[in-house]
Amino acid sequence: MSKITPDFLPDQIAAEVADLIAPGIDSLNPERSDNSKTVPLSLFVASVEQAPIAISITDKKANILYINNAFTQVTGYLAAEILGQNESKLSDKCTPRQVYYDLWHTISRKQVWHGQLVNRRKQGQRYLADLTIAPMLDEQGAISHYIGMHRDVTQAHYAEQQVNNQKQLIESVLNASPVAMVVLDSANSIVLDNQMYKMLISELGYAEPALFFLDALQQDMGDLWSTLAAQPQGFVNREIRVEGIGRRGTRWFSCSGNWFCENGTDADNFFSRQSSNYLLLTINDISLQRSQQEKLQLHTLRQLMSEEEHIRSIRETLLGAMHQIRQPLNQISAAIQIMSQRNDSQNQSLKDLLSQVQARGEETLETLRRCVPEIPETAVTSVNINQLLHETMLLHSQKFLANGVVVDWLPNPVLPSVLGSANKLRMLFKQLIDNAVNAMNRAGVNERLINISTSTDHDWVRVAISDSGPGIPANQRQKVFEPFFTTHQSLGGAQAGMGLVMAREIVSQHGGIIEIDPEYKNGCRFNISFPSQQHSLGVSIHE
Ligand code: FAD
């Protein structure tokens, strides 16, 4: 305690310090005097002396009367070097005047001031002081002294600045990125996004494009989504095709996602560590690359489809011929059977002749069967029905123009993928569109309109292709799916009555359903449904 009233202090200051100590702590805070009397004065003094925060007591002009041990540790000044000096000795002089003005304006109104100043230690190093100054009042309620308490917060400030700088750096990198990025919390609320993401909002017309993409990805990935959500590696380059709405064209986006965990920052979570899950979703617009690819692909597709068309027409011609030959052969076979049952020995030579004709006929059929070309097998992949329909329509564009057909294309903005053979599915759609155009031509209808739409229904992808032609009578709606049945008189070529047989076969190979809508009155509408990829993972596509 000897430090409190050292001999070297000027007389006036020494007297003030003695006054300060003599009445004990009561004079510092009269309101608490009753309570403090139970504690010896020496304990109060020792508490201040040993408190782990730099404490100084000054007179009204900020001349230092007392410092504790922590003050010496922080500032480097011993009591003998600083007592009697003004607190301004600590000032680095780079603190703006306005701060001091504010400080004095506050404390001289008997209020507590708290703020940060740049101080300089005795050895000359700067440090950031987090300072609180409280005025001390005498019995008349006038300011008698000030108590200052400060901590060196340089490190904390450094860490905070580092965090801020990193945040700014991350934000600049995110904003400079040509890829849209968004971070969502576990309730799918957006906690961070970048400029490219904000651009998506206006380009796609969705208030929150992230939610739209999440929905599309979840539809596309099904149960896989929740499996991946539990794994940090997430998913990469899942392509989402977004159909153009209004004048906006079709867009392709490649989406990647990573889930990460963040430790809770609330005081509640200080001891019991709680963490929150976040998803970083990146959305890359790959429409340009995709449309260039599509153009190139279209050229190849045209060639491929004309070859397939050729093969199909040979198949149908041969199958038609076999069908034609099969009928008389069946009749010959029936005649031979009757003759055998009657044991008709008179007509034995006729029976032998018929048997020879039958054997030749079967040989011919076998030869023809061997000549029927196989439709080439194609790989089973994840396909987007909107894309296939779009391609088929592009391949038909000249035909539509030549036949004065208007096509109304109403795709679902986003469709889950379907597992299947792109070639076969294209053949299916081509067949149905060809049928529609032919039907409208035959009926000579004036308004030639084809509506093609897609939709989703739970785990199913639905396609509706309708035309404004004459329609198919109710009693023929099942028959049209039978081989060689045609509503058109002349057989041959594309009208051989095998198109819908093939269509039904392709649909059933994909685990789907095709039917003629009985409710549709303005022509003919085919409804086709396919299980989405997630739903059909167990279905194997086979011939
Ligand atoms: P000064 O000439 O001292 O003052 C600058 C301005 O402050 C003046 O223009 C005036 O507006 C105001 N001012 C100064 N003295 C008074 C007064 N008595 N009454 C009303 N207004 C006044 N400063 C630090 O830099 N670091 C510290 O750690 C620090 N601790 C302090 C602890 C206490 C308990 C108190 C009371 C003050 C403390 N100060 C501290 C403030 C210090 O006293 C100086 O005001 C400040 O350092 C500016 O010093 P200066 O020499 O640049 O300007």
Secondary-structure topology with pairs:
Layout: H1 11-21, H2 33-36, H3 41-50, E1 54-58, E2 64-67, H4 69-75, H5 79-82, H6 97-107, E3 113-120, E4 126-137, E5 143-152, H7 154-176, E6 180-185, E7 190-193, H8 195-204, H9 209-221, H10 223-229, E8 235-242, E9 251-263, E10 275-285, H11 287-342, H12 348-371, E11 380-383, H13 385-395, H14 397-402, E12 406-410, E13 418-421, H15 422-443, E14 449-457, E15 460-467, H16 499-509, E16 513-516, E17 524-531
Parallel strand pairs: 12-14
Antiparallel strand pairs: 1-2, 1-5, 3-4, 4-5, 6-7, 6-10, 8-9, 9-10, 11-13, 14-15, 15-17, 16-17
Helix pairs in contact: 11-12, 13-15, 15-16
This protein binds flavin-adenine dinucleotide.
Flavin-adenine dinucleotide binds at residues 56, 58, 61-62, 86-88, 90-91, 93, 95, 100-101, 103-104, 108, 117, 119, 129, 131, 133, 146, 148, 150.
Tell me what the structure shows.
This protein is of the alpha+beta class. The protein has four domains: 11-152, Beta-Lactamase (2-Layer Sandwich), CATH 3.30.450; 158-285, PAS domain (Beta-Lactamase, 2-Layer Sandwich), CATH 3.30.450.20; 291-371; 381-535, Histidine kinase-like ATPase, C-terminal domain (Heat Shock Protein 90). 42% of the residues lie in helices and 23% in strands. It is built from 16 helices and 17 strands. It has helices spanning 11-21, 33-36, 41-50, 69-75, 79-82, 97-107, 154-176, 195-204, 209-221, 223-229, 287-342, 348-371, 385-395, 397-402, 422-443, 499-509; strands spanning 54-58, 64-67, 113-120, 126-137, 143-152, 180-185, 190-193, 235-242, 251-263, 275-285, 380-383, 406-410, 418-421, 449-457, 460-467, 513-516, 524-531. The strands form four sheets. Strands 2-1-5-4-3 form a five-stranded antiparallel beta sheet, with helices on both faces. The chain has a five-stranded antiparallel beta sheet with strand order 7-6-10-9-8. The chain has a five-stranded mixed beta sheet with strand order 12-14-15-17-16, covered by helices on one side. A hairpin with a 4-residue loop joins β6 and β7 (190-193). α11 (287-342) runs antiparallel to α12 (348-371) and α15 (422-443) packs antiparallel against α16 (499-509). The longest helix has 56 residues, at 287-342. The model is unreliable at 1-9, 21-28 and 538-543 (pLDDT under 50). Flavin-adenine dinucleotide binds next to β1, α6, β3, β4 and β5.
